[in-house]
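Checklist before submission:
- one chain only
- standard amino acids only
- sequence pasted in full

Submission:
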Amino acid sequence: MSAGVYGGISKRVSRWTGRPSTFLLALGVIAAWIITGPLFGFSDTWQLVINTGTTIVTFLMVFLIQNTQNRDTAAIQLKLDELIRATQGAHNALMDLEELEERQIEAFRGRYERLASEARARLERGEADTDTPEA
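Returned file contents:
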């Protein structure tokens, strides 16, 4: 199955599974299973049906949710990159930051934590915190 076909299927299924009516359907299946307990004498097979069904659904939903999350995250990152690119004075080095190694990200984080600390100190002194230190 190609990535495009899988992406399309996962998009449709995730929209469908996120609806209140789908939740109510799942709730109805659980209720029907509970109601049929006495009919089947609460047998091992009766329990196995719900255990197997929920395990399969959960297993498949993990992949579906991960695909949806990856797609959404990639779209958000691209939008943020465009905002950085289009904002005068913004640091283009911050674009695609999520692709850097952890130590590089921590170096950026440290720099911005220092800037935030300095800005809070200026606020405490009654000064503005809306400058561009690099300018």
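Reviewer check: The chain has a mean pLDDT of 90.
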